[in-house]
């Protein structure tokens, strides 16, 4: 039984322990996906956004076609890892490195980053890209897919440029924002057929010059490849000999 004289010290200890616990819970960063508190090291590594358990559950792309990052069919990879479609048509893209499928956790993080302005989610994605992706041949520069200035005004940033700047800073590769410009904002592509979508995208981007021999175009999501193929084609016309694509999410 506690004597009256012991209450203040005991109570004080209990209250300070409780306060410390409450403060730690409130202040410690929580995972953007599972909402659980993160340890100090994982918070620092994944930029205060995603815990190490969730990072291991990202739907990763692995062992896919070297040019388009889509899954290979049986027999495709007999000679080199290129799918049947990419073997038949000449692509201006030498290698597409996609971290994961644009679904579940990857899709959710990209959504938080692009549409809710959570820059920490973008940082977690670029950290995850660096953690999971392997680069054989370093490009001389990273070229983020440009956003139209009206979109940058509205959103406050270009997601591809933020990702490129994170990757470039980590890998010591310069980011070039001047090689390619976006001429039109572009309207919704819903309801347009494939030819119309491609025609619209081809008119949207212009490469104005490129002083490098080997570059990587950086984008958050690659879906139809229309954007990256358009930019890669123009880069080749400007004398670039190798164009790779680095993206976070690939639409299956
Ligand atoms: Zn988590
Ligand atoms: Zn392919």
Quickly list its features.
252 residues; alpha/beta; Rossmann fold; four-stranded parallel sheet; two-stranded antiparallel sheet; 10 helices; 42% helix; elongated; binds zinc ion
Distance between the termini: 66 Å
What is the N-to-C order of secondary-structure elements (H for helix, E for strand)?
HHHHEHHEHHEHEEHE
Q: In the CATH scheme, what's the topology name of the largest domain?
A: Rossmann fold
CATH hierarchy: architecture of the largest domain: 3-Layer(aba) Sandwich
The percent range for helix content is 40-55%
Can you count the beta strands?
6
How would you sum up this structure, described in words?
The radius of gyration is 23 Å and the shape is elongated. By secondary structure, it is α/β, with parallel strands linked by helices. The strands form two sheets. The protein has a four-stranded parallel sheet. A two-stranded antiparallel ribbon has the order 3-4. The protein folds into two domains: 21-57, no CATH class; 61-250, Rossmann fold (3-Layer(aba) Sandwich). The model has no long low-confidence stretch (mean pLDDT 86). The protein has ten helices and six strands, in the order ααααβααβααβαββαβ.
